[in-house]
Specification:
Helices cover 67% and strands 5% of the residues. It has 215 residues and is mainly alpha-helical. It has a 3-stranded antiparallel β-sheet with strand order 1-2-3. A hairpin with a 2-residue loop joins strand 1 and strand 2. The chain is elongated. Bound molecules: protoporphyrin IX containing FE.
């Protein structure tokens, strides 16, 4: 497939992209509603969700959507995010990668070490957020835990929420900073040049798997 003079390589199916954007929208709504409930100075943000009570009622349900949506992403991508020895070399040469020189690092598969850390970081934090969230979801689960357990859960929930927002900022910054990445999640394709520069091992595998045998 080609787009003008730029040959394109398919990176995500429509299903994967829908799955990703449902996850992204849920996390943004959770961050806004969560921050609104976190500190009085941000309480004004509850207006976006129809007031304080509605924000308190909606926030956990959006959390349930995020959890199941992320679970979809998890099962799609976990294998591709397994750590290998090339990832350690990529990390050791992070300074040249940041300067735009990726020739010193080994050829990279579908995801680099930074993307893998975002993936596993989000996986752990979302698991901790749903678990601690259920403990403090008083409307349905009040009777199942003690007050002390709820106190710990509130703290864990807030810390993990801040962690997830931080990882999300890193993820979006990296997606914008590495030019040509966003189209992977909007159109589902990247240019062959982008793939050759940043994920050469993946490009070679794709070429090998998709190449039609000569007749
Ligand atoms: C506005 C917000 C977001 C933007 C602009 C964005 C952008 C992107 C882009 C461009 C990619 C493709 C990267 C590539 O193929 O190399 C990607 C992949 C991915 N994104 Fe996002 N994203 C956003 C929010 C989120 C959120 C909130 C999550 C999780 C909670 C998330 C999880 C993922 C995962 C798991 C992948 C696949 C990469 C991997 O498995 O390591 N994204 N995102």
């Amino acid at each position: 497939m080609s787009d003008g003079f730029r040959p394109q390589v398919s990176r995500y199916t429509t299903g994967a992209r829908l799955n990703h954007w449902v996850t992204a929208i849920s996390l943004i709504l959770l961050a806004i509603s969560g921050l609104a409930l976190f500190h009085p100075s941000l309480f004004g943000l509850t207006a976006l969700f129809g007031g304080g009570s509605n924000t308190r009622a909606l926030h956990p349900w959006i959390g349930v959507v995020l959890f199941f949506s992320f679970l979809g992403l998890f099962f799609r991508f976990w294998k591709l995010n397994l750590w290998n020895k090339d990832d350690a070399k990529w990390m050791a040469n992070l300074d040249s990668v940041m300067k735009g020189d990726e020739e010193k690092v080994p050829e990279i598969g579908k995801y680099n070490a930074g993307q893998k850390m975002v993936f596993w970081g989000m996986s752990i934090l979302i698991l901790a957020l749903i678990t601690s969230g259920v403990v403090i979801w008083d409307q349905y689960f009040y009777a199942y835990t003690t007050i002390d357990q709820k106190r710990i859960a509130v703290l864990v929930h807030a810390v993990c929420g801040i962690g997830a927002i931080t990882i999300w900022i890193v993820h979006v910054y990296a997606a914008i900073w590495v030019r040509g990445t966003i189209s992977a999640m909007t159109k589902g394709t990247v240019t062959a040049g982008w793939a050759y520069r940043h994920h050469r091992k993946w490009l070679r595998e794709e070429a090998r798997n998709k190449a039609t045998p000569a007749e």
